[in-house]
Design brief:
Seminal Fluid Protein  PDC-109 (Domain B), alpha+beta, Jelly Rolls, about 15% helix, 6-stranded antiparallel sheet, 4 domains
């Protein structure tokens, strides 16, 4: 490629009225240099135009070579009105390659939400885009079914009911090879509301995202798949909590939207503006978060108190799969993290430690957490020992000790 060699000479000191003695001499010298300066500038411009032309030619050649390389590996440009089978690969108008996850016609891969196409070449930088943990419902350390309110089944998902409402939450398995929900997920979460309760009742599946600073002042998009046993609505909303003791300071019913479910799996997208936390006080107790709520049954009093959608008391079976929350106003393809990464993220909040000891009379056992916890955790014996647990001591850092006598 041509290199610009033309230089631009410096001009002499220009004349100044503050120096009348030298004004005439400097003016003559300055003006005499201007024609040469014009020649130098014109010569530089000619060389610059030559370089610009070579850059343009090089870009065109690179584009042609890239297209040839793509064609050489059997990838062609996406064409409107063409029917593609699952597994077909194309490159889109954005230059990225896409693979069809199911047969489709007239679905542009660049604008597709992920239902028909998955991008093969577009990287994501800046950490995990999905702010939720276990959005694919792969991890169930606590159990595969619960009727109690709180945590008890799918990791990171809190299944709450209030008042006289009752529900059962359980892990359900997809049929192998199904195509209604893409990416071949293994499990989905099912909530069976057997009693919608009274006006003071509600049934909610939620995830609290650590740190209320998350997405504050930004637009977010939640995408998920859902279905129900018969056509009915659910409500989806967000909330912000700043500390354990600041009930009055929390923000509820952010971006509340009703979603109409049917008996078929469908993908839904919810976009909301999360409020800024400017002027708020975040407590020091670590109890602050952004929360995503799926509301299945909401009594009138709860709706009024929270300012949420007037869903009403209802019963039924509600299934949810592949939930993603990301910054921005567009739902992108579901982020599939390695199962080991997902488990480690869950274990920041909960894990089960298993230990077997020999037939000693007494023992002091020091066990180490696999992942350092968000806060100093509570410790519970999950199964009976053949003896009496005398002491459970939470050590500083990443360990605990169990002292027991057989």
């Amino acid at each position: 490629m041509t290199t610009i060699t033309q230089t631009i000479s410096s001009l002499s000191t220009p004349p100044s009225k503050s120096d009348p003695t030298n004004f005439d001499d400097r003016a003559d010298a300055f003006l005499a240099e201007l024609p040469d300066l014009a020649d130098e500038i014109n010569a530089w411009a000619t060389e610059a135009n030559t370089v610009a032309g070579e850059v343009s030619d090089g870009a065109s050649t690179a584009t042609t070579q890239a297209a040839a390389a793509v064609a050489a590996v059997g990838i062609s440009a996406w064409v409107d009105s063409t029917t593609y089978a699952a597994g077909d690969t194309v490159y889109g108008t954005d230059g990225h390659s896409y693979r069809a996850v199911q047969a489709n016609t007239d679905v542009d891969p660049v604008s597709d939400s992920g239902a028909y196409w998955t991008c093969l070449t577009k990287p994501y930088s800046g950490g995990f885009k999905n702010k939720l943990i276990n959005g694919n419902f792969d991890i169930w350390q606590r159990g595969t079914e619960q009727t109690a309110s709180g945590y008890g089944s799918a990791d990171r998902w809190i299944n709450h009911h209030e008042g006289t409402a009752t529900k059962t939450v359980s892990r359900q398995e997809f049929t192998v090879g199904q195509t209604e929900v893409p990416n071949n997920p293994k499990y989905f979460l099912r909530t069976v509301v057997s009693n919608g309760g009274d006006t003071d009742s509600e049934v909610v599946c939620a995830q609290r995202i650590e740190d209320v600073r998350t997405c504050a002042g930004k637009t977010v998009t939640c995408s998920f798949y859902a279905r129900t046993d018969s056509a009915k609505d659910i409500a989806v909303d967000f909330g912000q909590r700043f500390s354990m003791d600041s009930e009055d300071d929390r923000v509820t019913a952010i971006g509340t939207q009703a979603v109409s479910l049917t008996t078929e799996w469908q993908k839904f997208t919810i976009t909301a503006d999360i409020p800024s936390i400017s002027g708020k006080t975040i407590g020091t107790d670590g109890y602050n978060y952004l929360v995503l709520n799926f509301r299945f049954s909401v009594g009138a009093t709860i709706s009024t108190t929270l300012g949420s959608y007037a869903l009403g008391n209802q019963t039924g079976t509600f299934d949810i799969a592949q939930v993603q929350l990301e910054e921005g106003s567009v739902a992108t393809n579901f982020e599939q993290r390695h199962i080991g990464q997902e488990l480690a993220l869950c274990q920041r909040y909960f894990e089960i430690i298993r230990y077997v000891t020999g037939n000693t009379v007494s023992s002091v056992v020091c066990l180490y957490y696999k992942v350092i916890k968000r806060d100093k955790p509570s410790v519970t014996l999950a199964c009976d020992l053949e003896g009496t647990a005398d002491t459970i001591i939470q050590e500083a850092g990443n360990a605990l000790s169990i002292c027991y006598t057989i």
